[in-house]
Amino acid sequence: MNKLLIFLLTLAGSAPGSPSAPDPSAMVVTQPPMRVESALGAWLGTLVQADGTRHPIEVSFTDGLRPETLFAYFRTGDPARPHTTLRRLGRLADDTLLFELREGGHIALRLVSGRLVGEVVDPAGQLAGKATRGIELSRTRP
Questions:
Q1: Rounded CA gap, 103 and 117, in Å?
Q2: Between the CA of residue 18 and those of 3, 21, 24, 26, 59, what are the distances in Å?
Q3: I need a surface site. Which of 30, 43, 68, 108 has the fewest CB within 10 A?
Q4: What pLDDT was estimated at residue 94?
Q5: DSSP 14-54
Q6: What is the residue extent of each domain of the chain?
Q7: What pLDDT was estimated at residue 62?
Q8: Contact between residue 109 and residue 39 where contact means Cβ atoms under 8 Å apart
């Protein structure tokens, strides 16, 4: 008899008097889809290399040649290296801004809570070394 009661309670989903779990959709935080217009303007942040070394970076985004494209001007520099400015045409793909670099590298950025975060894979060392690293940017002006 107890086994039958346990089986029926399992089918019902919860035991009498126990609090029910919240609906999974209530726990999901939704964010509007990324648009090219969301990135336009000036951003300031850091590049973080695999060894933890941090480099300042400034990025400016302007309209591209076609819809869903934009130009980015990445400017890095620190006392050890002269300033470098890199211009790349990027595109929006699956809520990610993608910019190709030499030798199969890329910069991938996603909008998260008003910040652009992502990864930089730079085998040619165009920005600040050859290691894979993270990037985080905060808007300074639209």
A1: 22
A2: 19, 9, 18, 19, 53
A3: 30
A4: 87
A5: S-TTSPPPPPHHHHPPP-PPP-GGGT-EEEEEEEEETTS-E
A6: 36-141
A7: 94
A8: yes
Token couple for 34: 């990324």
**What does the block give as tokens for 25?**
């959709």
Tell me the CATH architecture of domain 36-141.
Beta Barrel (2.40)
User: Helix (H, G, I), strand (E, B), or coil: what is residue 13?
Assistant: coil
Q: Structure tokens of 68?
A: 């869903």
Token pair in block for residue 13: 């989903």
The helix/strand/coil state of 2 is helix
pLDDT beneath 70, residues of the chain: 1-2, 5, 7-32, 78-82, 128-132
The SS3 assignment for 89 reads: strand
**pLDDT score recorded for residue 29:** 52
- pTM of whole model > 0.70? yes
